[in-house]
């Protein structure tokens, strides 16, 4: 995306304007997520997991851009795990990364054969496949001395996971923008946590990333996730702003107004105690405003990446291949 508008016809000028606006919005969202969750700190070495899908390409591209302007130093190493799925175009990522001129590693591990051998025909392969992948990526992070592992899940993935857990798992649980691995050794970050998938799709098309198809393993798409995705997309069309409001709800949890006795001490509640943050709404009729669609406040504030102190800055398909 170039800033120069010279010699462009009005249509091309408008497209350029929109493309720049989109790039800015994504960059701000990534900067905000990094800051809000303190995802990247001075001296970090970020292992960016690159699958060849639109999300991970966009994540790498945006992080490389932010790296140039951030007032702290951090390094990036891109890693692709070639799981030896049939038809995987091995040359695509090395060519792309070499042209970019950045540090990268292609890890070749034939997990595809293991999964095919171990999992019964007709059974879902994703659980074993992703477990194997996770173990390999953690090992590679150690080998590379990476302090953080960046995954390309976005806001739609997070919301879909929330609804999957609610509808099928009976849990109020999403997908965290930042987490520590079970063994306590690795920090995983999701810098695209605030980015909409439709924005990433447009960005990937404009940037012409050399996308590698995600169905090479032959696994069936996760139907439950597909249903949830369609539901959310339908809401997005019919009620602009609802998706944004739902995501904000994940950042505005009021334990005293849910029903988890582990999270809030209902049994120990006593009169005369300090009022709860969510307020006494026992007799009130709640009033809600219409949600605002994305864009209305998307560019609020300035990315903290450009303004924070060095010590704090930078900062399921969900196959994750
Ligand atoms: S969809 Fe992803 S996680 Fe599932 S088997 Fe294929 S590559 Fe593995």
From TrEMBL:
Record domain tRNA(Ile)-lysidine/2-thiocytidine synthase N-terminal: where: 46-208
Binding site for [4Fe-4S] cluster: 126, 129, 217
Keyword Disulfide bond found: no
Keywords in alphabetical order: 4Fe-4S, ATP-binding, Cytoplasm, Iron, Iron-sulfur, Magnesium, Metal-binding, Nucleotide-binding, RNA-binding, Transferase, tRNA processing, tRNA-binding
InterPro entries: Rossmann-like_a/b/a_fold, TilS/TtcA_N, tRNA_Cyd_32_2_STrfase, tRNA_thiolation_TtcA_Ctu1
Pathway: tRNA modification
Reaction(s) the record says it catalyses: cytidine(32) in tRNA + S-sulfanyl-L-cysteinyl-[cysteine desulfurase] + AH2 + ATP = 2-thiocytidine(32) in tRNA + L-cysteinyl-[cysteine desulfurase] + A + AMP + diphosphate + H(+)
Pfam family, one: ATP_bind_3
Cofactor: Mg(2+); [4Fe-4S] cluster
Cell compartment(s), UniProt: Cytoplasm
One MF term in the entry's GO annotations: transferase activity
Enzyme Commission (EC) number: 2.8.1.-
Subunit structure: Homodimer.
Cited PANTHER family: AMINOTRAN_5 DOMAIN-CONTAINING PROTEIN, SULFURTRANSFERASE-RELATED
NCBIfam families: PRK10696.1
Other known facts: The thiolation reaction likely consists of two steps: a first activation step by ATP to form an adenylated intermediate of the target base of tRNA, and a second nucleophilic substitution step of the sulfur (S) atom supplied by the hydrosulfide attached to the Fe-S cluster.
Protein name per Swiss-Prot or TrEMBL: tRNA-cytidine(32) 2-sulfurtransferase
Native source organism of the sequence: Crenobacter oryzisoli
């Amino acid at each position: 995306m170039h800033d120069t508008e010279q010699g462009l016809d009005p249509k091309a000028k408008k497209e350029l304007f929109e493309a720049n606006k989109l790039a800015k919005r994504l960059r701000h969202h990534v900067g905000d997520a990094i800051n809000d969750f303190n995802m990247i700190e001075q001296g970090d070495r970020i292992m960016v997991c690159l699958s060849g899908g639109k999300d991970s390409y966009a994540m790498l591209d945006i992080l490389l851009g932010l790296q140039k302007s951030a007032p702290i130093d951090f390094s990036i190493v891109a890693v692709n795990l070639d799981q030896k799925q049939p038809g995987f175009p091995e040359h695509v990522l090395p060519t792309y990364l070499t042209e970019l001129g950045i540090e990268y590693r292609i890890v070749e591990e034939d997990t595809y054969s293991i999964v095919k051998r171990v999992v019964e025909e007709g059974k879902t392969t994703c659980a074993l496949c992703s477990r194997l992948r996770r173990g390999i990526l953690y090992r590679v992070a150690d080998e590379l001395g990476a302090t953080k592992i960046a995954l390309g899940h976005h806001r739609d993935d997070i919301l879909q996971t929330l609804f999957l857990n609610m509808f099928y798992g009976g849990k109020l649980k999403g997908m965290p923008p930042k987490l520590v691995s079970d063994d306590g050794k690795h920090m995983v970050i999701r810098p695209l946590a605030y980015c909409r998938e439709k924005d990433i799709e447009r960005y990937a098309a404009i940037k012409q990333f050399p996308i590698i198809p995600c169905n090479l393993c032959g696994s069936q798409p996760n139907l439950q996730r597909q249903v949830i995705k369609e539901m959310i997309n339908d809401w997005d069309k019919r009620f602009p702003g609802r998706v944004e409001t739902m995501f904000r709800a994940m950042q505005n949890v009021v334990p005293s107004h849910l029903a988890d006795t582990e999270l809030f001490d209902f049994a120990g509640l006593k009169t005369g105690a300090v009022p709860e943050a969510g307020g006494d709404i026992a007799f009130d009729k709640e009033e809600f405003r219409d949600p605002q669609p994305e864009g209305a406040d998307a560019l609020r504030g300035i990315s903290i990446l450009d303004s924070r102190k060095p010590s704090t800055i930078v900062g399921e398909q969900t196959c994750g291949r």
